[in-house]
Amino acid sequence: MELWYTEEHTEDVRFSIKVDKVLYSGESEFQRIDVFYSKEFGKILTLDGLMMLTEKDEFIYHDMIVHVPMATNPNIERVLVIGGGDGGTVRELTRYQTIKKIDMVEIDEEVVKICKTYIPQTAGKLDDLRVQIFFEDGLKFVRKQKDEYDLIIVDSTDPFGPGEGLFTKEFYGNCYKALKENGILVNQHESPYYSNYANSMIRAHRRIKEFFPICKVYQAHIPTYPSGHWLFGFASKTFDPIEDLEENKWNSLGLKTKYYNTELHKGSFAIPNYVKELLDSEYE
Amino acid sequence: MELWYTEEHTEDVRFSIKVDKVLYSGESEFQRIDVFYSKEFGKILTLDGLMMLTEKDEFIYHDMIVHVPMATNPNIERVLVIGGGDGGTVRELTRYQTIKKIDMVEIDEEVVKICKTYIPQTAGKLDDLRVQIFFEDGLKFVRKQKDEYDLIIVDSTDPFGPGEGLFTKEFYGNCYKALKENGILVNQHESPYYSNYANSMIRAHRRIKEFFPICKVYQAHIPTYPSGHWLFGFASKTFDPIEDLEENKWNSLGLKTKYYNTELHKGSFAIPNYVKELLDSEYE
C-alpha cells in the first residue's frame, strides 16, 4: 500500500507527496490538522489539507518573513506575530538578543499543542521567556492595540477559512494603529502565478497601500507552496527595505541562515514584470 | 474520463496537470515526444515524459536565458544555440536587430518539426533569415568551431538521455574554444532543491569553472519545472554580468518582456546561502 498526500493548486494542477507515516490527524474547533512524515520532506504540517510547512524547506519561509524586517531595522524591540502557530517565525525572532517582547496571537490552540508535540524543529522556542501567546482572533487582538509594536508579522494561512479576516482592510488599518511611528508590517502575500492566489495577492497589496506610505513586495522560492513562487509584503511608516537596509550591522550579528543573506534581501525586491503589472492592476 | 500528465520530480514527489487533449504523441530516433493541451497551461511539450515548456510560463525561461547575456553585452552579433528545438530561445534572440547570425544545433529534427506544427508561439521565428539550423549532435558541432561566437546558449534537456553530453567537461572546453575573446556561455543549470537535480548542478558548475574565469549562477521562478527554483549558469571570458550590465543601453532598446527587467537581472544573481554552499561543495 502507498499513501500519498495531494494538494490541488488549481482545479487542473496537483502536487503530491508520498507519505511514509501519518503522525497525527484531528479536527480542532477551527480546522482539520494533519502531521505527516515523508522521506523527502521530513515532517509536514497541513491545515484543512493545505500545506503549511515541511521540515525540509520551512527555513526559507521563516528566514524571509523575519530577517528582512529585522535587517532593515535592527533596533526592533517589540514584535507581534499573528498566526504562526507552528512557532517557526518566533524561533527566528528569538535569535535576536535585542528583541525584548514577542506577542504571538494564534486563533487555534490545537495547532500550537500539536506542533510542540510533533514538530519541535519549529515549535521549540515557543517557551522563550520573551514570548507570550494569546489564543484569540488576531483581527480582534489588533483592534485593542495602539502604538505598541515596532514590527507586526502576519504569518497567516490563505485568505479562506480562519485566515480570512487577516486580509481585510479593517485588519490592515488596525495594524497601522498598533504600530509605533517607525513600525513595519510584514505579511505572507500569496503567489502571483495561479490566478486564485494572485487575486488574493492583488487585493492584499491594494488594501495595505491605503494605509502605509512605503509598501513593497519581495519574493522567495518555496518549492512546497503552490507554484513555488511566493511573495511577502513589506509595509512601513518610515523604513525603506533597500535604502535603510543595515547590511553591515546585520552581518556583524553573525547569525547563520540557510536561505537569507543581505545580497538576497536586496535581490528579493526585484520582481518580474508580470508580477509588477498584477500589483498595479485595479482588481476588484 | 479524466486524463492527467504526471511528472515524478523525485521518487516521492509528483506534479500532475489535467490534460484536455493530446495533440501529438510519437517516438523520434532519440526520444518520446508529446504535445498536450491543458486549460491552465495551454500547450505543453514533454520529451521522454519530462516537462520542457508550457505556453503559460515559457516566457520566464526564455527571457532569462537570452536577455541576461544580451543586456550584459548588447554588442553580441554571432550566437550559437545548442538544443532549444522548441524555438523559444531563438525567438527572443531575433528581437535584437544587432544580432547578425544565429546558429542552432538541435539533435532531434522531429522536435523542431512538431513544434513548428503545434507550438508556433515558440517556434514561429525559426524561419528568420539570420537563423541556420543544424540537425546534429551539439557535442560534435562545437568540436569543429574556433573563435566563432560571441555567445553560446546551451538550452538543453536534463543530463540524462540525449542531453547528457552537454554537461561534460569536454563539451565546456570546446565551448570555450568556440567563443571569441569576449565570449559568454549561458546554460540551463538545473535546480538546487532536490538532490537528483542538485548533483547535476554542482557537477556542471565545477566543470565550467575549470575553463572560464568568470562563472556565476542566477535563478528564476519556473513553476512547471521541478521545485520551481531553476538556475542558469553565466560563464564568460571577460564580461561580469553585474558590473558590466548595460542597463541604460538595454532599456533604450524598448523590448517588452513579461519576466525580465534589469533590476531583476541584478537580483537574480543573489542566491540563497544553501545554494551557494552546494555550488562550493566538492561533489564528485
From TrEMBL, chains A, B:
One of its GO terms (biological process) is spermidine biosynthetic process. Its EC number is 2.5.1.16. InterPro entries: PABS, PABS_CS, SAM-dependent_MTases_sf, Spermi_synthase, Spermidine_synt_N, Spermidine_synt_N_sf. Residues 2-237 form the PABS domain. The active site is at D155. It is an enzyme of class 2 (transferase). It catalyses: S-adenosyl 3-(methylsulfanyl)propylamine + putrescine = S-methyl-5'-thioadenosine + spermidine + H(+). Pathway: Amine and polyamine biosynthesis; spermidine biosynthesis; spermidine from putrescine: step 1/1. Spermidine binds at H62, D86, D155, S156, T157, D158. S-methyl-5'-thioadenosine binds at Q31, E106, D137, G138, P162. Keywords: Polyamine biosynthesis, Spermidine biosynthesis, Transferase. GO terms for cellular component: cytosol. One of its GO terms (molecular function) is spermidine synthase activity. Pfam families: Spermine_synt_N, Spermine_synth. PANTHER family: SPERMIDINE SYNTHASE, SPERMIDINE/SPERMINE SYNTHASE. Homodimer or homotetramer. Belongs to the spermidine/spermine synthase family. This is Polyamine aminopropyltransferase. It comes from Keratinibaculum paraultunense.
